[in-house]
Specification:
Distance between the termini: 22 Å
CATH architecture of the largest domain: Sandwich
Structural class: alpha+beta
Strand content: 15-25%
GO molecular function: DNA binding; DNA-binding transcription factor activity
Largest sheet: 4 strands, antiparallel
Number of strands: 11
Helix content: 25-40%
Order of helices and strands: HEEEEEEEEHHHEHHEEH
Number of domains: 2
CATH class of the largest domain: Mainly Beta
Pfam family, one: cNMP_binding
InterPro entries: cNMP-bd_dom, cNMP-bd_dom_sf, Env_Response_Regulators, HTH_CRP, RmlC-like_jellyroll, WH-like_DNA-bd_sf, WH_DNA-bd_sf
Protein name: Crp/Fnr family transcriptional regulator
CATH topology of the largest domain: Jelly Rolls
Organism: Inquilinus limosus
CATH superfamily of the largest domain: Jelly Rolls
Length: 243
């Protein structure tokens, strides 16, 4: 099956994403080399890779992670449709993180060598990539704040609410229910908690009627309580660039 043309990409109709000019979309389409599909559990990018392409996540969920030599890992952030991936690679040290698929995914592929053309000829798109990178770093900063200062309940509430809100912006939520491919192990690796502690917190939040997480489905019962536990301050959602 042929890849979806950039001009008719269904993500561009989502209110979450900013509008590109016809010239920008034409450049993005010319820069795109094609699409690739990966199964759940596959790695799109391995830590240390030094010659990787750039990707936009077209469908499915993935996550960025860093791993120690003994296999222990820290999940940095969750990736959802529209996220731009692979920009951080340095020539001498390679990719500072890996990217693994949570579900079956499809990505749009952009050759890294074309990045210079983008920066030279389309400064607005270059700014968009800078914005996306800074936004991603901000998410990692928030996760670090959770690990360092929030309680276990606050940590879980914060990540569940962040994923829930992003999924709702992508129109993936129906009646406060969505597919939720993260396991307890993923949540523990993201929040610096043991599996036992993570399980206890999830059971407490279920018992308190905040949300239910079972069989890879998330059902939010009390969004007000979830926001309160996460100390979430509502703010206008900026339009996200889409490459």
């Amino acid at each position: 099956m042929a890849a979806t043309p950039c001009a008719t990409c269904p993500l561009r109709s989502q209110p979450l994403f900013k509008t590109n000019t016809a010239e920008e979309i034409e450049f993005i389409a010319g820069m795109r080399r094609g699409n690739l599909k990966y199964p759940a559990g596959a790695q799109i990018l391995s830590q240390g890779d030094d010659d990787s392409d750039l990707y936009t996540l077209f469908s499915g969920w993935a996550f960025r992670f860093k791993e120690l030599e003994d296999g222990r890992r820290q999940i940095l952030n969750i990736l959802m449709p529209g996220d731009f991936m692979g920009f951080h690679i340095a020539p001498q040290t390679g990719a500072p993180y890996g990217i693994e698929c949570l579900t079956d995914v499809e990505v749009c592929v952009f050759p890294r060598r074309r990045l210079w053309d983008l920066f030279r000829n389309h400064p607005s798109l270059a700014y968009d990539i800078t914005w996306l990178t800074a936004h991603e770093e901000g998410i990692v900063d928030d996760n670090l704040l959770s690990v360092g200062q929030r309680s276990g309940v606050e940590r879980v509430a914060t990540i569940v609410l962040a994923v829930y809100k992003r999924a709702r912006q992508l129109d993936l939520v129906r009646d406060n229910r969505l597919d939720f491919p993260l396991t307890q192990s993923h949540i523990a690796d993201m929040l610096g908690m043991s599996l036992i502690h993570t399980n206890r917190v999830l059971r407490r939040l279920h018992r308190d009627g905040v949300f239910t997480l079972a069989r890879k489905k998330l059902q939010v019962h009390d969004t007000r309580a979830l926001r309160s536990l996460a100390a979430w301050a509502e703010a206008p959602v900026p339009k996200r660039p889409l490459i």
